[in-house]
Design a protein that fits this description.
The protein is built from nine helices and twelve strands. It is an alpha+beta fold. The protein has a seven-stranded mixed β-sheet with strand order 7-9-6-10-8-11-12, with helices on both faces. The chain has a five-stranded mixed β-sheet with strand order 1-2-5-3-4. A hairpin with a 4-residue loop joins β1 and β2. The radius of gyration is 19 Å and the shape is globular. It starts with a helix and ends in a 9-residue tail after the last strand. 41% of the residues are buried. The chain binds adenosine-5'-diphosphate (ADP) and magnesium ion (MG).
């Protein structure tokens, strides 16, 4: 009986992450996979020194862009989103296959612009487009599946955060949609390479669902909690604190690092990168916000979810 009821449940009742969790339990994890469903990219065997990374991201009209967004911007975002996931594992992007669903009335000029946008950013990050699929669809939809590689010792997953770790982000947060940063962001590959080769974060994720939601993913997998210092969170132009906490698609990296290393990272003033320390990982579960006056309050856990 319970089972029949479960089958009638709508995905909107499960939520995006409840749904993914059920899919994960259903499909399991191949024994050879180092990491299957649950991180920014799957981690698979490649050679004695490296792992293969594999990620997929789907963009649809009306959700990830509008019918006013230029083809070039759509293509750019499609590839950049996947590169960002590879970066979040500490890896370098290599090859992509692109599947596209088009209305029959779509002009070639639009398709050409999409691929121009994809090629430009792919080239910049050393990624090649090597295939895909084309179908008819009621709305424009693009799926990018990308492989990358990471030195075994450079791999950073979501599950390594330890109590006492310091929490950092690579740039300003909030109002990504309003400010159209979600179309212009630069995937933080260079920052991630710098971090994994010199500091080795314990956990990392790219912020696509929002700071609190994505920190939540790290903490759930690491079985820890966190305190975020409100006054330390870098805000994008025009963004309020709540935008920085809950808006999606900032595509900055969020990472945690042992305290001893974090001093060194914070003191590297000469570097070209910005790393903002925004809080600390705690043994106590849940996310707490520390107000500028030093008062602690429980954070509401929410962010962007598709259902
Ligand atoms: P991200 O925001 O980093 O792209 P997602 O939140 O989309 O990550 O996905 C989280 C995890 O769930 C990833 O490991 C992803 O591969 C997996 N995932 C998402 N949707 C599905 C699906 N429909 N089937 C199998 N795995 C999925
Ligand atoms: Mg991600």
């Amino acid at each position: 009986m319970a089972r029949r009821i479960a089958h009638k449940e709508k995905v909107s009742a499960l939520g995006e992450f409840g749904l993914i969790d059920r899919v994960r339990k259903l499909v399991g994890n191949p024994a050879s996979a180092i990491c299957g469903i649950g991180d920014d990219a799957a981690v698979l065997p490649l050679d004695p020194k490296k792992y293969l990374l594999l990620t997929a991201d789907m963009l649809t009209e009306g959700v990830h862009f509008t019918n006013k967004t230029s083809g070039e911007a759509i293509g750019r975002k499609a590839i950049a989103s996947s590169i960002s996931d590879i970066a979040a594992m500490g890896g370098l992007p290599r090859y992509a296959v692109v599947s596209i669903g088009l209305k029959p009335s779509t002009s070639w000029a639009k398709v050409e612009a999409i691929y121009r946008g994809m090629r430009k950013i792919a080239k910049k990050f050393g990624t090649g487009i090597v295939g895909g699929d084309t179908v008819r669809h009621a709305k424009l939809v693009i799926n990018v599946a990308m492989i990358g590689e990471v030195g075994k010792k450079h791999l950073v997953r979501r599950n390594g955060a330890r109590p006492g770790d310091q929490i950092f982000v690579t740039g300003g947060l909030g109002r990504s949609l309003a400010g159209e940063r979600h179309l212009r962001f630069i995937p933080r590959v260079d920052q991630a390479q710098y971090l994994v080769s010199r500091f080795k974060p314990n956990a990392m994720i790219d912020i696509s669902d929002g700071l609190v939601a994505d920190l939540g993913h790290i903490l759930a997998q690491s079985r820890t909690g966190a305190v975020l210092e409100e006054a330390s969170i870098p805000l994008n132009k025009g963004a309020r604190l709540k935008d920085a906490l809950y808006d999606g698609e900032d595509f900055e990296l969020l990472f945690t690092m042992a305290k001893s290393k974090s001093w060194r990272l914070q003191n590297q003033r000469k570097g070209k990168f910005m790393f903002h320390r925004i809080g600390e990982v705690t043994k106590r579960r849940g996310i707490q916000l520390m107000t500028p006056a030093g008062r602690l309050k429980k954070a509401v856990i929410k962010g962007y979810t598709h259902f």
